[in-house]
Amino acid sequence: MSSTTAVATLLGGPLVGGVVHQGEQQKEAAKKAERSQATAQRLATSRAAAELRTQDQERRRLNRRKPNVAGLLAEERRSSLTGAGATTLTGASGVGRERLTLGRSSLLGTS
Question: pLDDT at residue 89 above 60?
Fold first, then answer.
C-alpha cells in the first residue's frame, strides 16, 4: 500500500463514519417529524369530529319539535262542546237503540 493510500484510508475511515452517523441522525429526525405529523393529523381529525358532533347537537336542539299546547287545548274545548256521549267512534248522538238490540226489539234478546 502506498503512503497516499494509507493516508486516505486513515482519513477516509472517520469521514465515512461521520457521514453514516449524519445519515442516521437525519433518518431519526425524519421519523420523529413523521410521528409528529401523524399525531397532529389524529388530533385535527378528532377535533373536527368533536366539532361536527357539537354542530349536530346544536342543530337537533334548534329543530326539536315542541308540542302545540294551544292547538291541543282548542281541540279539547271543541270536543267538550259536543256532549258527554260523543266519542270518535259514535259521534255526538251516541249509538242508536237499533244498533244495540242487534235487530231484536229487546236488549235481552226476547221479541
Answer: yes
